[in-house]
Amino acid sequence: DSLRKTVVAHVFGERTMATLGRLMSLLSPFDVVIWMTDGWPLYESRLKGKLHVISKRYTQRIERHNLN
Predict the structure, then answer these.
(1) 56 or 41: whose pLDDT is higher?
(2) Which of 46, 60, 64, 68 is deepest in the core (most CB within 10 A)?
(3) Hey, CA dihedral for 24, 50, 41, 5, is it positive or negative?
């Protein structure tokens, strides 16, 4: 949630199409406009046609959340 700076969904698992699909299903009610990822090739193929930003700069907040 960009306004509250909170995580709205978690999915744990290997970096597979199935795991990404579960995450996208959980996020579907939130009308995600911009997808920011670290450039894993699977993300590029699945997010084709969506606004997709590839940059570690924008994934650092969730990475820090995962460490805590």
Answers:
(1) 41
(2) 46
(3) negative
Cα-flanking dihedrals φ and ψ of residue 22, to 5°? -65, -40
- Locus of tokens 């700069």: 57
Sequence-ordered list of residues with C-beta below 8 angstroms from that of 39, at least 6 positions apart, any chain: 54, 55
Cα distance between residue 44 and residue 51, in whole Å? 11
Which run of H or of E encompasses 60?
A: helix 60-67
Cα gap 48→60, rounded to integer Å:
23
* pTM of the predicted structure, to 2 decimals: 0.68
How many other C-beta atoms lie within 10 A of the C-beta of residue 64?
9
**pLDDT tens figures, 12-24:** 899 899 999 999 9
